[in-house]
Amino acid sequence: QVQLVESGGGLVQPGGSLRLSCAASGFTFISYAMSWVRQAPGIGLEWVSDIDGGGSTNYVDSVKGRFTVSRDNAKNTEFLQMNSLKPEDTGVYYCIASPTFQPMCVPRGLASWGQGTQVTVAS
């Protein structure tokens, strides 16, 4: 059974940094593409970033140069390093695992989701 547990969210001032983690279990981690999706209050889901098993990455334009996605296949963990955070980055961030790589979009089909972690950027 696929299980994804996010951590690392919190309250941070504009310009600050956070590092999100997604601990995965129940599947062959390296065979899955991993994505981050966020949902701001009153707004629909927004794809943020993804990374395939080989380490190829994609980012939404609004976070390019500020966010870095990575994965440790030995530890079954995905990370999202978020720097220079802005108030518009506020939202619930979800980790998603998909057996097929669905780049630059919110994964559908057999994708599995974590419970989400809240990120709030405010002064």
Task: Supply database-style keywords.
123 residues; mainly beta; seven-stranded mixed beta sheet; four-stranded antiparallel beta sheet; globular
Low-confidence blocks of residues? none
Radius of gyration in whole Å, from Cα? 13 Å
SSE ordering: EEEEEEEEEEE
Strand content: over 45%
Q: What's the number of extended β-strand segments?
A: 11
What is the helix fraction of residues, given as a range?
under 10%
Total count of helical runs of at least 4 residues: 0
Quaternary structure type: single chain
Main beta-sheet annotation: 7 strands, mixed
What structural class should be given to the helix and strand makeup?
mainly beta
Structure commentary:
The chain has 123 residues and is an all-beta fold. Helix content is 0%, strand content 49%. The protein has strands at 3-7, 10-12, 18-25, 33-39, 45-51, 57-59, 67-72, 77-82, 91-98, 112-113, 117-121. Strands 2, 4, 5, 6, 9, 10 and 11 form a 7-stranded mixed β-sheet that branches. A hairpin with a 5-residue loop joins strand 5 and strand 6 (57-59). The N and C termini lie far apart (40 Å).
